[in-house]
Amino acid sequence: MLRKYNLISASRRFLSFKTYPTPNQNALKFVSPERPISPLENKTFEFGSSLQAVHSPLALKIFKLPGVKSVMIGHDFITVNKQDHVNWAHLRPEVTELMDKFLTSDKEPVITKELLESEKDSLAASEKDSEVVAMIKELIETRIRPAIQDDGGDIEYKAFDEETGTVFLKLQGACKSCSLSEDTLKGGIEAMLMHYIEEVREVVQILDPEEEIANKEFDRLEQKLKEKKESSPPPPPPSL
């Protein structure tokens, strides 16, 4: 499914954006084929709130739209996560219009210089990396990350435990809150890393504190419903 917005104006040149669905129904990927959004080709910047977006004037403006949950900015795309109750039919054109006005005005940077200079790509090679860590990063960068970004997300390397063979990663954008994120992590990422790198035995996802709380609340609710169902008396037999 692909929608293209051709915007025409006599007063200024409008940009054309394409929107792509993601595996997460609450996330849309807005692609800018005419001009880059962020100056860094592979690095993405994710913001979970307006407080986190202080170094992205564009993200701050997007957060002012009702129903926006998170924003991730890539080189030529932006992924917007919305609240469950918000309809894309209303939010999509608002995001597109806002992006167009911001990118054509060139009055403010998309990402401030301070953030661009301070943020390092977790998959970038480092002299401190062991041979195994270097292999893990290279495999993620070349084989896994492109597919994740195609779906409006990204992946961040956190650590590798050599004793247990555990790789700690963080999914971002559309992928982190997707119902299929566990399948992506275990069936896709873990399987590939274990296939090519024998030292890897497991992949574990690192969650933000608020995500951990939400997951615990969901598990608690599920357990409560299960206990209620088990304690309920069986229905009476049908009368003849």
Automatic annotation (TrEMBL):
Q: Which InterPro entries match?
A: FSCA_dom_sf (IPR034904), Nfu/NifU_N (IPR014824), Nfu/NifU_N_sf (IPR036498), NFU1-like (IPR035433), NIF_FeS_clus_asmbl_NifU_C (IPR001075)
Q: GO MF annotations for this entry?
A: iron ion binding; iron-sulfur cluster binding
Protein's organism: Candidozyma auris
Can you quote a single GO CC term? mitochondrial matrix
Q: Where are the compositionally biased (Basic and acidic residues) regions?
A: 221-231
| Span list, region Disordered | 221-240
Q: Where is the signal peptide?
A: none
- Which stretches are annotated as coiled coil? none
Q: How is this protein named in the record? A: Scaffold protein Nfu/NifU N-terminal domain-containing protein
